[in-house]
Amino acid sequence: MARAYGRLLSYAGKPEVTQTDLPDAVQAFCGAAEARLTSSSAITYTEELTYALLIVHPDVDWTWLQTRNRIRRAALRGVKKREIGTGGAQDRGERDGHTWPGDQQQRLQRSTGRVSDSLRSRVASTGWTPRSQRQAASLEPSRPVAQSIATWSASRRTAVVATWDRYQRLAAQIDLPAIPTPNSLDAFVKAVVTRNSDISEVSLADYIGRIYAACCFLYPEQNWSWLKHDWRAMKALAEASRDKRSQLVPIEELYGFGLQLMHRAVDMPRTVEAATMYRDGLFIALLALRPKRRSNITSLKVGGTLLLDANGIPEKIVFARTKNGAPSATPYPSQHLGVYHDIWWQQFRPILLGDRPDRGDVWIGKQGEAVRHDQLWRQMRKRTAAPEPVGLGRAIGVHIVRTIYATSMAEATSDPTLLRLTPWMLDHRDPRSIEPYNLQARGMAAAAELERAADLLRVRDQRP
Q1: Could you report the per-residue pLDDT of 2-29, keeping only the tens digit for each?
Q2: Which end of the chain has fewer CB within 10 Å, C or N?
Q3: Where in the sequence does UniProt note compositional bias of the Polar residues kind (predicted)?
Q4: pTM of structure
């Protein structure tokens, strides 16, 4: 950021620019950068300059520059999507089947239409035969398939299509048939386990279930009873590899642990170790107050998914797309973490960033690059697994915090109005999604009540 501001002063030819001339100088500098550099480099220059100006001149309104950057960045992303031809699908795992064989691409396109539309097209055709008069094996591949994925939720479609794409890529690598067979399915499972030894049996069963769903809508004329049997058998025998109940702690305890890490880092010398500790503490505290999905919360970027107000204070967390396909916008808890965020940005983040270009990523690693979501997940589990009082004595992952949050809210209140806010905070479309957490909270409350009753009985029996 300091380098970006130095470029501005060098372009203006002055050691300092007054606030009156500053907007014109910034506009001229941005125009010159766009004229001389590529679009990608120019927007990086202007974004770095924006961060510097928000710190050096916080009393000046830079909303126009932030808006300009967002428009330029959105236009640049649109160009890249058209050049790649995937519409940015690789970013979130939602693929349109462009790498599949031609026959599968056509079947996927036909299956996106609703069943009612497919039936209308059949009735309108002269060669259509009612289902009751057709033989079981008379369905031609050229006809629109009977099953449709148009009624699926965005998250289900994304998961099924991504898993099928994974199977197709693996089939091309190890020479498997494009259409699954019992032998190819066994080879697929072995290859997945070999590449990811930490995968659970439940996840493997989910993979098989998604492949079964993809086969049903891509090749409905074939008999997939064997695959359905394998999927159900694997699902029945699968056992969770992680005990989630052991990771449940009160959400306020997790939030307090994040604050504790930051306070310890502030008292330490300004080293890389202190900076990473402060980063992990801020991440845990923010996650406790805003339990977003791992891929979203770990990709925060100033000017993109983290919006600042005119004073440079975090104002809102926005995601153009979440797992269920819908956008998300949540206020940043500045009243609780505003000061901590400022300390991170001013004191500790520059230690990790070093002399690397600042691209606005909130979470920075030891090498100055944006931290991957799996790295933050490991760091969080490592911090929380440490024995008390250094840690919490139990390894807590990023995603389980969503369960902790929902359960804690259900335990704290029975007000239906407040409980309806939990799905909004978790970016769930269906309010019924929190019912398991409500049941779990009531079960834990009932268990505690039984324990108190048992204690009273034990005390009564011990009386003389």
Answers
A1: 666 777 777 777 777 777 788 888 888 8
A2: C
A3: 102-115, 123-136
A4: 0.55
